Amino acid sequence: MSPGSGRSDPVEGGLPEPAELEPVAGSLALDLDGPDGAAATRADWEKAAAAVLRKSRRIGEGDPDDVVWARLSRTTLDGVQIGPLGIPGEVDDLAGPARPTSPGGHDIRIELLGADERRLNTEALADLEGGATSLWLHADRATGLHAVLDGVLLDLAPVVLDPVGEPVVVAQRFLDRLGDTTPAEGTNLGAPATAADEELVAVAHLALDAGVRAVVVDGSAIHDGGASDGQELGWSMAAAVRVLRVLESAGVEPERAAGLIEFRYAATDEQFPTIAKMRAARVLWSRVLQACGTAPVEQRQHAVTSRPMMSRYDPWVNMLRSTVAAFSATVGGADAVTVQPFDRPLGRPDAFGRRIARNQMHLLLSESHVGAVADPAGGAWAVERLTHDLAAAGWRQLQALEGGACIDDAIATTVSARDRQVALRTRPITGLTEFPNLAETLPEREGGPDAVRRHGAPFEALRDDPAKASVFLATLGPVAAHTARATFATNLLAAGGIGVESGTYDGQRVVCLAGAEAAYDGSGEQTAAALREAGAQRVIVAGKPRDWADDSCAMGVDALAFLTRTREALA
């Protein structure tokens, strides 16, 4: 970006496309202890992994050992392949990444959201007293910032504004509250990168005069809408490039403008993709500034644990999800981390939920020492490969957006693909699509569920309206023979809000048979016929389809479609 040009062209050249993996010689040492104490080779690992997959029938007896790479690899929603093992050959074609200069996660940021100013003030003071170090404050013209921030030491606790409309007005009101106080490092007036040009310019000048940051590029917002990691990265870079262009046209040099920007990203419970995403964001930001002809400016990152990954049912599992997400964000180098309280999907988090969220970060930092080392995942072959591939996916998305593509269309495709994975339960959600508990009592929170569409939304809708009738479970053969399939069917039905009864048949409209294949061959058809004669109108078999059954359920079934059919039969 040349001074005075009013525009940059950061996508010229672009990142290199991920190179095809070159075949690695079978004698390559993987630094694993072999049976004789010597370094194991790739062939040794393939042989051992293939033996396990043959035993579980995931590969055939005649398949070569090296087929394990295809069987154990998975592809992300961005089309990035994640292999089962990191090997040196994966990084041969990669340039050095842009690494964080200091450990991440030391800024524990809490979110303040709502209209009750006294309550917000009470929450802010309690969180800061409990160890939070900065505030993320949603505010509009009507928010009384003096009341909300009463007692907050603004020279010690940074405040990042999230203005709901009129960012210039909110910024000015905050600066009036700040007065002569020297603002804490990290304070940000929070103009959204999507704000109008004149609003961005006005807030930037206010920020420069006050010595604070001005703009937040909020990638987590499109994550909430269903975006993939690559789409979130690409959109954030496109938004940041727009900010640089707008401010440069107003006379703010690109390097100075870059220092006004903070990036916000979602952290999910997919550990390695989240680590790689934080690292890839730095790679992309460095590449953008390089293409602009601007000196490097460290990217300021704020990570927020994902709201869509959470569940309203069995919400306690959200603690596990958000802990993994916060761990990953910190390892990835995020400067500030906000852990969403486990009860956020139920309504307004209470004091317990907020305290648990704070303490999750305290445990990670003070007891696990996650933030003691800068870039601890750096140098790991698998992480470096994934970082590069996510950066390449983000760069392609940036180029598409620069070319006029609509991000909403790309997100819609991603949402459809993710919904399909959730329906097939290849993307399981513990407590919702897997191991649901129909007898649970949910905590009550005021305000009701939040508006974000969670990944398990279709299953939550089924649980919200539980089936009025139950399915009768008829087991065939000894306990050892039918337990696995009976448990599978019971859990699957519960994921759709359908209860199961067993024992003596009492006229239920839908029945499910569970047993071994031999039992189905021997007495399955007769049992199904007897149940139909007794009043059953639909017979399901747990396992492979049978001619004498109306439906079947097994691993790989479209769970959402199966549950919908079953509920219709029950109704």
Descriptive keywords:
Cbl-dep_enz_cat; 8-stranded parallel sheet; 18 helices; TIM Barrel; MeMalonylCoA_mutase_a/b_cat; single chain; Rossmann fold; 5-stranded parallel sheet; methylmalonyl-CoA mutase activity; cobalamin binding
Q: Terminal Cα separation, in Å?
A: 64 Å
In angstroms, what is the radius of gyration?
Answer: 27 Å
The largest β sheet comes out as: 8 strands, parallel
Give the % helix.
40-55%
Q: Would you mind describing this structure in some detail?
A:
- This protein is of the alpha/beta class and 571 residues long.
- It has three domains: 47 residues, no CATH class; 296 residues, Methylmalonyl-CoA mutase (TIM Barrel); 109 residues, Cobalamin-binding domain (Rossmann fold, 3-Layer(aba) Sandwich).
- Helices cover 42% and strands 13% of the residues.
- It is built from 18 helices and 17 strands.
- Strands 7-6-5-12-11-10-9-8 form an eight-stranded parallel sheet. It has a five-stranded parallel sheet with strand order 14-13-15-16-17, sandwiched between helices. A two-stranded antiparallel ribbon has the order 1-2.
- Helix 8 runs parallel beside helix 10, helix 10 packs parallel to helix 11 and helix 11 packs across helix 12.
- 47% of the residues are buried.
- The N terminus is likely disordered.
- Heterodimer of an alpha and a beta chain.
- One of its GO terms (biological process) is propionate metabolic process, methylmalonyl pathway.
